[in-house]
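Hi C.,

You asked whether I'd gotten around to modeling the 122-residue construct. I have! Everything is below, sequence then structure, no commentary in between.
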Amino acid sequence: MLSVIYGSLASLVLLFLAAVHLYWGFGGRWWIENIIPQRNGIAILPTSGPVAVCGFILIAMLLTVAAACVMIHSGLADEPFPSALPFASLSVKILIAVFFALPITPDLLIGTATSTRQFVEC
């Protein structure tokens, strides 16, 4: 029962994040200045143009697949094919590792932790 509740919450959060990335991919600007790191007031990563659109949509697709894996792993969704459960279990473990590593990895230019990092010119 608890895994269903946690699976539901985790999949809803992942689907919300996917929706926000789709919003950004189609030109939305809400909260993007807090996510994309800036140096001297200029964004380091592109926030518009084809590269940014493809990046945002790719991340939205990956987050949607991650939400599906969480749903399969927690028993909220049926397996689409016989070997889906081991794949979903491994994917959930990798997802947990990635989300724990994002805030502590100093060189990644993604996530909300980037707004507090200090960039030094070399």
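If it helps when you're writing up: The CA atoms of residues 61 and 112 lie 20 Å apart.

Thanks,
B.
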